[in-house]
Amino acid sequence: MEPGHVNRVALTFDDGPGPETADLVRFLVDEQAAATFFVLGQNCELRPEVVTMMRDAPGIELATHSYSHPDLHHLDDQEIRDELERSNCLVTEPGGQTPPLFRPPYGHRDRRVDGIARELGQSVALWSLNSMDFKDDHHTTEHVLRNVRPGDVILFHDTHHATVTATRELVPALRSRGFELVTMSELLGPCVPGRVYRGRNGARVRLSRWLQLQVLRVRHRARTLRARPPR
Predict the structure, then answer these.
(1) Residue spans per domain, the chain
(2) pTM of the entire structure?
């Protein structure tokens, strides 16, 4: 990571634009807090004025998240291509450049998805920290502040009211801890189309999180076995 930027993190928002996305963008602009929004094509059709606002907002990066949020594992190659191209067209201005970042729904990707993204000139953008914002704003805030590390790409969803509330708390809280809020492209630097990116964490952070995940999987497996009725 570049010297002087060791405390950068990227706030990223999926599934919008939603009913409160415009308010969220206005808050971020007022706070001069950068963020990346991975928008859904079908929601862009519902709220084109919000897409225009986001495109013109300083510090806001637009990226794509497919057209209708399917599990791409279950689609054939042409269907995957259609999902990406339809969403790209709704975000890109006439004569403009295709958004360089694409996030697959659920984070589900494989070589086919990566290859089609490469054909379209897009990198596959995942995340390193899930905010767990499907719960409530208080839990989201606590979870992020407890787990965030320099170089994180943090996953949120701007279709949740709790997320909007939590973001208003997190922006000043993250800054008070010395974090600089940047777009995902600013965090990563130049990206290669078709390559998968999750953040810019150190090896120790990645190993620690991998071990935590294995522990959770073992515990889940143990609970499942204990719940089985005796034969």
Answers:
(1) 8-200, 202-231
(2) 0.89
Name the token pair of 215: 């522990």
Q: Which of 202, 195, 197 is nearest to 36 (CA)?
A: 197
Instruction: Output the six-digit token pair for 202.
Output: 């150190």
pLDDT tens figures, 158-185: 999 999 999 999 999 999 999 999 999 9
Kindly tell me if the per-residue pLDDT of 1 is higher than 70: no
The matching CATH number, chosen from 3.20.20.370, 3.40.50.620, 3.40.50.1240, 1.10.3720.10, for 8-200 is 3.20.20.370
